[in-house]
TrEMBL record:
High-level lineage: Archaea, Methanobacteriati, Methanobacteriota, Stenosarchaea group, Methanomicrobia
InterPro entries according to UniProt: AraC_E-bd (IPR010499), GyrI-like (IPR029442), Reg_factor_effector_dom_sf (IPR011256), SmbC-like (IPR050908)
SUPFAM superfamilies attached to this UniProt entry: Probable bacterial effector-binding domain
A Pfam family per the record: GyrI-like
Bilayer-spanning residue ranges: none
Name of the protein: AraC effector-binding domain-containing protein
Span of domain AraC effector-binding: 2-156
Length: 156
């Protein structure tokens, strides 16, 4: 059993890129927005995150099966940073959230999500906004079994 804690998330200015497609596009989309950030000389304030707009495990599974996932990747940035084209600057809302930490390959996160949703049900909470996966280390320089993902679920 993984540790699940409640946290108060602060609003955060981000640069985001959002598309419809396969979850396999998350990595390439992170690279795309990272290239934009580097070209513009922007210093991100933290690691990249994936914003999951499918609100239930069933919706995630359905989107995975059809390649119709609502995919968004973001990097936290300073106020005053502007986006361009498909890359938009906006404030990601804060609020009450629960956090669980997944260790290991991204494709193996299903068990972590099952624990999260079971915990939410046991505590009479429900997800009331997009779940965020914050990628704490780089899959290109980190072995799969050492990858760390902080998963935040806005709750009410």
């Amino acid at each position: 059993m993984r540790l699940i804690i409640e946290v108060e998330g602060a609003p955060q200015k981000v640069l985001g890129l959002r598309r419809t497609g396969s979850y396999d596009e998350i990595g390439p989309m992170i690279k795309e927005i990272a290239s934009y950030i580097q070209e513009k000389g922007i210093t991100p304030l933290g690691p990249p995150a994936y914003i999951c707009h499918e609100m239930t495990l069933e919706a995630v599974q359905a989107a995975a099966g059809t390649g119709s996932a609502d995919i968004e990747v973001v990097f936290p940035v300073d106020d005053g940073i502007e986006g361009m084209g498909d890359i938009q600057a906006y404030e990601l809302p804060g609020g009450r959230m629960v956090r669980i930490i997944h260790m290991g390959a991204y494709r193996d996160s299903g068990e972590t999500y099952t624990e999260l949703y079971n915990w939410l049900a046991e505590n009479n909470l429900s997800v009331n906004g997009p779940i965020r996966e914050v990628y704490m280390n780089d899959p290109e320089t980190t072995e799969e079994d050492l990858l760390v993902t902080w998963i935040y679920a806005p709750v009410g």
